[in-house]
Amino acid sequence: MITKSKCDESYTNKYDGVDLAEILASERLLNGYVSCLLGAGPCTPDGNELKSEYSSDGSYKREYLTRLHPEQEKSTNKSKEYEENLKDKLIE
Q: Residues annotated as region Disordered (predicted)?
Protein backbone atom coordinates (compact mmCIF):
# COMPACT_ATOMS: atom_id res chain seq x y z
CA MET A 1 0.00 0.00 0.00
CA ILE A 2 1.32 3.42 -0.94
CA THR A 3 0.36 6.34 1.23
CA LYS A 4 1.14 9.98 0.98
CA SER A 5 2.63 11.41 4.13
CA LYS A 6 1.20 14.62 5.51
CA CYS A 7 4.58 16.33 5.03
CA ASP A 8 4.38 15.74 1.27
CA GLU A 9 1.00 17.39 0.90
CA SER A 10 0.81 20.69 -0.90
CA TYR A 11 -1.81 23.34 -0.54
CA THR A 12 -4.43 23.65 -3.21
CA ASN A 13 -3.58 25.33 -6.47
CA LYS A 14 -7.26 26.15 -6.92
CA TYR A 15 -6.63 29.89 -6.81
CA ASP A 16 -3.42 29.97 -8.86
CA GLY A 17 -5.37 31.44 -11.79
CA VAL A 18 -6.60 34.39 -9.73
CA ASP A 19 -4.86 37.64 -10.61
CA LEU A 20 -4.20 38.85 -7.07
CA ALA A 21 -2.01 41.69 -8.34
CA GLU A 22 -5.00 43.07 -10.25
CA ILE A 23 -7.22 42.85 -7.17
CA LEU A 24 -4.63 44.52 -4.94
CA ALA A 25 -3.96 47.25 -7.50
CA SER A 26 -7.64 48.13 -7.79
CA GLU A 27 -9.09 49.99 -4.82
CA ARG A 28 -12.58 49.15 -6.09
CA LEU A 29 -11.92 45.39 -6.26
CA LEU A 30 -10.01 45.28 -2.98
CA ASN A 31 -12.71 47.26 -1.15
CA GLY A 32 -15.35 44.96 -2.63
CA TYR A 33 -13.64 41.85 -1.27
CA VAL A 34 -12.98 43.44 2.12
CA SER A 35 -16.61 44.61 2.38
CA CYS A 36 -17.76 41.12 1.46
CA LEU A 37 -15.52 39.46 4.05
CA LEU A 38 -16.70 41.88 6.73
CA GLY A 39 -20.35 41.35 5.81
CA ALA A 40 -20.66 45.04 5.00
CA GLY A 41 -21.40 44.67 1.30
CA PRO A 42 -22.47 42.28 -1.44
CA CYS A 43 -20.27 39.35 -2.44
CA THR A 44 -19.30 38.07 -5.85
CA PRO A 45 -19.28 34.27 -6.29
CA ASP A 46 -15.49 34.35 -5.66
CA GLY A 47 -16.03 36.55 -2.61
CA ASN A 48 -18.63 34.13 -1.24
CA GLU A 49 -16.21 31.24 -1.68
CA LEU A 50 -13.43 33.14 0.05
CA LYS A 51 -15.80 34.18 2.83
CA SER A 52 -16.84 30.55 3.32
CA GLU A 53 -13.22 29.74 4.19
CA TYR A 54 -13.48 31.81 7.38
CA SER A 55 -15.44 31.00 10.50
CA SER A 56 -17.57 33.66 12.16
CA ASP A 57 -14.77 34.61 14.56
CA GLY A 58 -12.43 35.39 11.64
CA SER A 59 -10.27 32.29 12.04
CA TYR A 60 -9.52 30.00 9.13
CA LYS A 61 -11.68 26.97 8.47
CA ARG A 62 -9.36 25.25 6.03
CA GLU A 63 -5.74 24.39 6.54
CA TYR A 64 -4.50 25.77 3.21
CA LEU A 65 -5.48 29.30 4.21
CA THR A 66 -3.01 29.17 7.08
CA ARG A 67 -0.23 29.40 4.50
CA LEU A 68 -0.03 33.12 5.25
CA HIS A 69 2.26 32.07 8.08
CA PRO A 70 5.89 31.95 6.89
CA GLU A 71 6.63 28.72 8.73
CA GLN A 72 4.27 26.86 6.41
CA GLU A 73 6.24 25.27 3.59
CA LYS A 74 3.49 23.39 1.77
CA SER A 75 2.37 26.27 -0.45
CA THR A 76 2.67 26.15 -4.21
CA ASN A 77 5.15 28.63 -5.69
CA LYS A 78 2.29 30.69 -7.13
CA SER A 79 0.48 30.82 -3.79
CA LYS A 80 3.69 31.96 -2.06
CA GLU A 81 3.93 34.82 -4.58
CA TYR A 82 0.30 35.75 -3.86
CA GLU A 83 0.93 35.71 -0.12
CA GLU A 84 3.90 38.06 -0.38
CA ASN A 85 1.92 40.48 -2.55
CA LEU A 86 -1.03 40.35 -0.17
CA LYS A 87 1.13 40.91 2.93
CA ASP A 88 2.90 43.84 1.26
CA LYS A 89 -0.40 45.45 0.26
CA LEU A 90 -2.00 45.00 3.67
CA ILE A 91 1.03 46.51 5.41
CA GLU A 92 0.92 49.67 3.22
A: 46-92
